[in-house]
Amino acid sequence: MREVTRLLDAVERGEPWAAEELLPLVYDELRRLAAARMANEQSGQPPSWLRGLPT
Question: What residues have CB less than 8 Å from 3, skipping those under 6 apart?
């Protein structure tokens, strides 16, 4: 996480290279989290976050 914080600080300062380094780190982590979450969902059921939305 220190690397992400460092890159976020650089993005805030306007460093053009920082976003190029930050996005792959964040994307990979989000994909990992989503895969773990989806693995816990029951087959044939809508995702739990979707079940809470009004219809």
Answer: 25
29: region left, alpha or beta (phi > 0 left; psi from -120 to 50 alpha): alpha
User: What distance lies between CA 41 and its chain's CA centroid?
Assistant: 18
Residue 3 or 42, more confident: 3
Other CB atoms within a 10 A radius of the CB of residue 7 amount to: 20
pLDDT of residue 55: 66
CB 2 within 8 A of CB 20: no
The rounded radius of gyration (Å) of the Cα atoms in the chain is: 16
When pLDDT is cut at 50, 70 and 90, the band that residue 1 belongs to is low
Placement of tokens 């792959």 in the chain: 24
